[in-house]
Amino acid sequence: MSDVPAPPDLAAKPASASCTEMVQIVLPNDANPLGFILGGTVMHLIDIAGAIAGHRHTRTRLVTAAVDGLQFLHPINVGDLIILKACVTCAFRTSLEVEVEVFSEETLTGARRLTSRAYLTYVAVNQEGGTVPVPPLRLETETDRERAAAAERRRRERLEARRRFLDAMPEL
What we know:
The chain is α+β, with helices and mostly antiparallel strands. The protein contains two helices and seven strands.
């Protein structure tokens, strides 16, 4: 993918401008035979919530490049609400990282529990698939700075793992 001129608005934006919350009820068609939401459905919703936060930050087309750290800590039952909270943690030159936290909420009691967390990397692209620059992330709080530093570490680790993977691939 080749770089193209920057979009007109590359002013730094705060993380709060991109934060997104999605809520939906878990229905039987979303569930496995045990009555818990399917992991693939959760992953799908994570990608959607992450992309929305990313679009709000970049106002460009995005493609998902990586998912880091996804773990399923607790099941979510049919009839419960699934709540996804997504926010940009770091912006790089043509990509950005979004943290998505997933919660379950019991509809009758309101009890909430963190069930998953994932970090997704999106690359900004134009209509032809070439990369485009993304606006910087304005780090306003110490928490913002800590999240950005952690995102930069994850990025270094991900790029190194990708390099090792590509080096180990046989020539085709």
